[in-house]
Amino acid sequence: MRLGEMSCVILCGGKSSRMGQDKSKLKIKNQTLIEFQVKKMSQWFKNIYVSVKEDKFDKQFLIIKDDPKFQFYSPMIALYSILSYFKNQFVFILSVDSPNINEDEILKMFAFLEEDYKIIIAKTSSYKHPLCGFYHSSLASICKEFLEKNEQKIGLLFSQVKTKFVEFENENTFLNLNFYKEYEKFKSELK
């Protein structure tokens, strides 16, 4: 399989409580952060989907909605809903607030798809990045089991299935725009 034949899903369903406003709608170079991410990921993936609780983008993107039987906010719900949407394939998952990810990082993780892993995610010296990597759709049932037990942490999957943590040195590549000052800094560095 080639990277260009695969799908990418950008997560936009969180509450953005630390940012104080919807991260996906923050402005970057005359576009929103989600438009920035979709345009960027479209360079490398065949299909780009946006994961949301509700379609807040007025049908601008291909949408995967969170399963409505789960009414709370959780990355595990998003992951379950995404993986349930796809059949027998890997999908690349990326949080909307990780704008520094580029082709080099994606290809480094992609290289492990031919091995026997079900999850391939980025790892830096200080953090595992569960919302940046490849997940196999067969994991949907395990995600559902966790949700039914009210277990919300995606990291719980790592002990259940064969997972590859791909090592990266540059922490800034995996920057998350959680706070307004991080967003302002990212914007200023783009100029």
Assembly type of the chains comes to single chain
Runs with pLDDT <50, length 5+? Answer: none
The second-level CATH architecture is: Alpha-Beta Complex
Shape: globular
| CA distance, first residue to last residue | 36 Å
Could you please say which CATH topology applies here?
Answer: Spore Coat Polysaccharide Biosynthesis Protein SpsA, Chain A
Provide the residue-averaged pLDDT: 89
SS class: alpha/beta
- Radius of gyration over all CA atoms, rounded: 16 Å
Largest sheet: 7 strands, mixed
> How many domains in all?
1
Organism: Campylobacter aviculae
EC number: 2.7.7.77
Catalytic activity: Mo-molybdopterin + GTP + H(+) = Mo-molybdopterin guanine dinucleotide + diphosphate
Family: Belongs to the MobA family.
In brief, what are we looking at here?
Its main location: cytoplasm. The protein is of the alpha/beta class and 191 residues long.
Kindly list the characteristics that best describe this protein.
single chain; 191 residues; alpha/beta; Spore Coat Polysaccharide Biosynthesis Protein SpsA, Chain A; 7-stranded mixed sheet; two-stranded antiparallel ribbon; globular; magnesium; cytoplasm; nucleotide-binding
Protein model, in words:
With 191 residues, this protein is an alpha/beta fold. It has a single domain, classed as Alpha-Beta Complex (Spore Coat Polysaccharide Biosynthesis Protein SpsA, Chain A). 25% of the residues lie in helices and 24% in strands. The chain contains 5 helices and 9 strands, in the order E-E-E-H-E-E-H-E-H-E-E-H-E-H. It has helices at residues 33-41, 75-85, 103-110, 140-148, 180-190, and strands at 7-11, 27-28, 31-32, 47-52, 62-65, 90-95, 119-124, 127-136, 163-167. A 7-stranded mixed β-sheet has the order 5-4-1-6-8-7-9, sandwiched between helices. A two-stranded antiparallel sheet has the order 2-3. Helix 2 (75-85) runs antiparallel to helix 4 (140-148). The protein is globular, with a radius of gyration of 16 Å. The protein starts with 6 loop residues before the first strand and ends with a helix. It is an enzyme of class 2 (transferase). Its cofactor is Mg(2+). Belongs to the MobA family. It catalyses: Mo-molybdopterin + GTP + H(+) = Mo-molybdopterin guanine dinucleotide + diphosphate. Its EC number is 2.7.7.77.
